[in-house]
Design brief:
heterodimer; A: alpha/beta; Rossmann fold; 2 domains; seven-stranded mixed sheet; five-stranded parallel sheet; 15 strands; globular; B: mainly alpha; two-stranded antiparallel sheet; 4 strands; 71% helix
């Protein structure tokens, strides 16, 4: 079909009319409107594990909750924080001050995540983080406006670290990204490894960012005689470490301290098989996760959701329930009160099942240890994990009194 | 077991070898930059993006057309080289009369656009690319496992570097090229089509980057940012070797790879900076670079 200029003009006129119409009626009836901002990495290393898929997850939550039938409206904004805390906080301020945003979701990258938490508190808005790793969000950096939804460094370290020692991997060598996140991950994991009776034989902190060749560190790891290599890094760094370990015939067990489904997809099973990792969500876990993931894949073609994208869906859905229960006007007025309401309500959704939110802002659910399948075990694309172990919800995260969060002391 | 500076000998030899392998990439990339700068006076900041395009071209050939690694070693540089020629003809050639800075800014912008387009289309985690079957596996050298593929990279890089050097320094085509750099109007008076020569030189330099990209594809994940990681170091290599010096960039490339490899043993945190420390020292002591000629 040929599209004529006239048709395009007519179409745009029609759509303009369509946008004017609800505005006119809106003024008459004053339909309350919530604004949700999805602040994420749209172009950098975390684009595939969060990014456009996270924005799609927000829309999915809105559709499935059936906002249009509940007597209020929701607008969604999306922006790229470029993995820079200053860019992230500027966008968050603009959203809160100028655009009237009520809730920020996602925010992968620990540095940006902590900075945005402060803005949310200052402006008394709601902030539900799914993508960041740092356990400080519910520890020393916690506040009454923030909930940390999916996972954190403590959960990862405990699940992967302790489980591997139990399975016989009792001596470790770390390859660590030389910045706050990598060091925190190494510190937390070391605690669990030694706590379970294992030893740390050494480690190397490599320059971050900018390192692409890990072969040198892998050879050092091999020379240390350790049984396990703990990869305290993320994204393409982890991908390159794994690829090169395979290339250099390193026979040591690889422990992925932070790996996402999208990383495994990029590596391919040929290289990734046998790696042990921790995720709190996997699309093929049960009937509910499969149903959720099929609906997600219908929106985002050819891709299965990561735990971060699942978290964005789950947290948005829970927010909608709480906001509509307490009244939209009330929810818009006081972020801390809304978060208190979120904490008071039990959570339940297709991704994480039944759960709860602790007073320090930690969303609680079980964590799962997975092993990446061999190519022969996989039935097709995205069939990547088989379950190894799980940690029940009440033990998966740092005990409330150990985090140093001021909210937990009351 | 022998130890050198407290490091076990085998570990040290292993690192030297690894340094040589990385040096192979530095050498190939800086060689292309040196050729382009020497002939065109353009500081080609798009080099990293073109390197990335080479890797992507081989990935696309495999996944869309079913063409394997070895044909891709020739086809991918050819395709990316043609893309480079189009870039030179349509955009870059407009800047020859202006200061270096304009060329640098333009190619920097081009690099951002190219990388952005690829990131948009293919995401940022990267694509897997298998090592060809014949080069799978590793050889036990006694002090370390040497992956066969990495050995192949060093050999291929050396051959390509030396061939490029020979063409420019030892053939009549190379002589014409060098003459055209020195005095273009005079060479043109002898009936040589200098603009076309320049276009082909740019295409050749780009093809070198793409060739390195194909070699890199099975080692690193094929991802839109892979060039950015390399390009800063490679520029330092060119500056240290002397802008425009062909042999200089080859030797410096391999040499700095080794220096970096050793740093990874003694003080890993500094491995990303050591090349720039060397650059500062060289610039202070010998501003033209180690192999640069006086103007």
């Amino acid at each position: 079909m040929k599209i004529s200029r006239r048709a395009v003009t007519l179409g745009s006129l029609a759509s303009a009319a369509a946008t004017i119409a609800p505005m006119a009626s809106g003024r008459a009836q004053a339909v309350p409107t919530l604004k949700i901002g999805c602040l994420t990495d749209m172009s950098g290393p975390y684009k595939d594990l969060a990014g456009p898929g996270a924005v799609a997850a927000v829309h999915q939550a809105l559709e499935e909750y059936g906002v249009s039938s509940k007597g209020f409206k929701v607008e969604v904004l999306a922006a790229d924080h470029l993995n820079k805390p200053d860019v992230g906080t500027t966008i968050a301020r603009e959203w809160f001050d100028r655009d009237g945003v009520d809730l920020i979701v996602e925010v992968a990258n620990s540095g940006v995540a902590l900075a945005v938490a402060n803005v949310a508190k200052e402006k008394n808005k709601v902030y539900l983080n799914s993508g960041a790793a740092t356990s400080d969000l519910t520890g020393t950096g916690c506040n009454a406006n923030t909930i940390h939804w999916v996972y954190d460094t403590y959960m990862l370290a405990q699940s992967t670290g302790a489980a591997m020692v139990k399975a016989g991997g009792d001596s470790w060598f770390f390859i660590t990204a030389d910045y706050a996140f990598g060091k925190a991950l190494q510190r937390d994991t070391t605690e669990f490894v030694t706590g379970a009776g294992g030893k740390v034989l050494g480690g190397v902190a490599y320059a971050f960012p900018g390192t692409t060749d890990f072969s040198s560190y892998l050879i050092q790891a091999q020379a240390s005689g350790a049984k396990v290599i703990g990869m305290a890094n993320a994204g393409t760094d982890t991908i390159n470490t794994i690829k090169q370990a395979k290339e250099f015939g390193i026979k040591m067990q690889l422990a992925g301290l932070l790996l996402f489904l999208s990383d495994i997809h990029s590596l391919g099973l040929d290289v990734a098989q046998g790696i042990v990792l921790t995720d709190s969500f996997y699309w093929d876990m049960n009937d509910r996760t499969r149903a959720f993931s099929d609906r997600f894949t219908a929106k985002v073609k050819g891709v299965r959701p990561t735990m971060v994208q699942a978290g964005v869906y789950s947290s948005t859905l829970h927010y909608l329930k709480a906001a509509s229960a307490m009244g939209i006007e009330q929810a818009k007025k006081d972020g801390a009160a809304t978060v208190a309401r979120l904490k008071a309500m039990p959570t339940d959704d297709d991704c994480f099942g039944k759960g709860s939110i602790r007073v320090d802002g930690r969303k609680i659910h079980p964590s799962y240890l997975w092993e990446v399948k061999k190519p022969s075990e996989s039935k097709g694309p995205w069939d990547y994990y088989k379950p190894v172990a799980s940690t029940p919800a009440d033990q998966a995260f740092r005990p409330l009194d150990k985090g140093g969060c001021s909210l937990a002391k009351v | 077991m022998i130890t050198i500076f407290g490091i076990p000998g085998p570990l040290l030899f292993g690192q030297l070898l690894l340094g040589l392998i990385n040096g192979a990439f530095y050498a190939m990339l800086s060689l292309g930059l040196a050729v382009i700068f020497g002939m065109l006076n353009i500081i080609n900041f798009a080099h990293g993006a073109l390197f990335m395009m080479g890797a992507f071209a081989s990935w696309m050939l495999l996944n869309y057309v079913g063409i394997g690694y070895f044909p891709a070693l020739i086809l991918a540089p050819l395709l990316v080289g043609i893309f480079g020629i189009i870039l030179e003809k349509t955009i870059i050639s407009r800047l020859y009369k202006l200061d270096h800075l304009y060329g640098l800014l333009l190619t920097f912008g081009l690099a951002l656009v190219i990388e952005g387009l690829f990131r948009n289309a293919y995401g940022s985690s990267g694509m897997p690319y298998r090592i060809p079957n014949i080069l799978q596996g590793a050889t036990n050298l006694g002090f370390m496992y040497m992956p066969n593929y990495r050995g192949w990279v060093v050999v291929a890089a050396l051959v390509v570097c030396l061939a490029t050097w020979a063409i420019i320094e030892k053939t009549s085509l190379g002589a014409t090229l060098r003459a055209a750099t020195e005095n273009a109007p005079l060479v043109q008076a002898f009936g040589v089509d200098v603009p076309r020569l320049i276009t082909l030189t740019y295409g050749g330099g780009v093809a070198l980057a793409a060739f390195a990209g194909v070699l890199a594809a099975p080692i690193y994940s094929v991802n839109p940012n892979m060039g950015t990681n390399f390009i800063n170091t490679v520029f330092a290599v060119v500056v240290i070797g002397g802008m425009g010096s062909i042999m200089g960039s080859i030797i410096t490339g391999f040499g700095l790879g080794v220096v970096e490899g050793l740093t990874k043993v003694f003080y890993p945190q500094a491995s990303a900076t050591v090349v720039f420390v060397v650059m500062v020292i060289v610039l202070l002591v010998r501003p033209r670079g180690l192999f640069g000629k006086a103007a």
